């Protein structure tokens, strides 16, 4: 997998992201992708080869390995990183769609025509909803993969010895030993911790976006109410002046 190309692609999201999203992207590539490429792949590279069972029964070792490792840690993390980073591409695609609409509008109506958007990359309207949806999607993916990891391996733990019981074609109970369980346990906790940090950052960004939008709407509502109140006062004063003028005209004048 070409992680460098993915990093260059997702780096464009920084132009349209908040500070929380920039920190999230740094955590993903420094503490997850970099650790995955440099160290984790090598630690899990020989997992099936060094999965040793105390039996000579043909096929028993492979069946026991599949029973305890339905999917490898390293492949599960690769899927997690792919699914987590994909929603950011939605924001890039939406901004590109806006820019294309703006270009076609200028070609059709001329360079001096009114713009469709004040800024194509400004998070308002549909782009705000797309950005918020991408955050919720990332949050759901992170939690789902952590749940799968916890469900398949109890409490993210890797024991030294696993017992393969009532699994054909293994005879009775077979003891199997995982290669380098302590090292794998350390990397598992590290990746889970990095994923938890990303979850916290995503939740903070969701609350930040919603809070910012509520504040903006409140300010607009206050401005609109002030304008309506000032307009009503001005119209009331204008009506009072007119009524006073009519009263002055209706009063009889005394001639000496």
Describe this structure in words.
This protein is mainly α and 256 residues long. The chain has one domain: Up-down Bundle (de novo design (two linked rop proteins)). It is built from 6 helices and 3 strands. The chain has helices at 3-11, 19-43, 60-68, 73-109, 126-152, 181-250, and strands at residues 52-53, 161-165, 173-177. A 3-stranded antiparallel β-sheet has the order 1-3-2, with helices on one face. A hairpin with a 7-residue loop joins strand 2 and strand 3. Helix 1 runs antiparallel to helix 2, helix 2 runs antiparallel to helix 4 (73-109) and helix 5 runs antiparallel to helix 6. It is elongated, with a radius of gyration of 32 Å.
Number of H- or I-type helical stretches:
6
The pLDDT mean sits at 77
The helix/strand series, from N terminus to C terminus, equals HHEHHHEEH
Fourth-tier CATH superfamily name: Gap junction channel protein cysteine-rich domain
Q: Helix- and strand-based class?
A: mainly alpha
Number of domains: 1
Q: Fraction of residues in helices?
A: 55-70%
Q: From the alpha-carbon coordinates, what is the Rg to the nearest angstrom?
A: 32 Å
The total of beta strands comes to 3
Roughly what fraction of the amino acids lie in strands?
under 5%
Distance between the termini: 108 Å
Largest sheet: 3 strands, antiparallel
- Gross morphology is elongated
């Amino acid at each position: 997998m070409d992680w460098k190309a993915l990093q260059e692609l997702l780096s464009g999201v920084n132009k349209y992201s908040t500070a929380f999203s920039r920190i999230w992207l740094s955590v993903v590539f420094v503490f997850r992708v970099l650790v995955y490429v440099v160290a984790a792949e090598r630690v899990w590279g020989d997992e099936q080869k060094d999965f040793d069972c105390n039996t000579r029964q043909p096929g028993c070792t492979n069946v026991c390995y599949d029973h305890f490792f339905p999917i490898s840690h390293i492949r599960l993390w690769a899927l997690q990183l792919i699914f987590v980073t994909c929603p950011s591409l939605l924001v890039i695609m939406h901004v590109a769609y806006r820019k294309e609409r703006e270009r076609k509008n200028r070609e059709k109506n001329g360079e001096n025509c009114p713009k469709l958007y004040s800024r194509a990359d400004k998070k308002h309207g549909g782009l705000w909803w797309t950005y918020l949806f991408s955050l919720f999607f990332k949050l759901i993916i992170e939690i789902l993969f952590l749940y799968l990891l916890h469900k398949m391996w109890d409490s993210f733990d890797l024991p030294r010895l696993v017992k393969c019981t009532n699994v054909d074609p293994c005879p009775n109970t077979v003891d199997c030993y995982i290669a380098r369980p302590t090292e794998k346990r350390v990397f598992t906790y590290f990746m889970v911790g990095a994923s938890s940090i990303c979850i916290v950052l995503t939740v903070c960004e969701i609350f930040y976006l919603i809070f910012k939008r509520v504040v903006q709407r409140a300010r607009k509502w206050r401005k609109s109410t002030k304008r309506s109140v000032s307009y009503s006062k001005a119209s009331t004063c204008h009506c009072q002046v007119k009524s006073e003028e009519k009263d002055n005209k209706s009063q009889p004048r005394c001639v000496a």
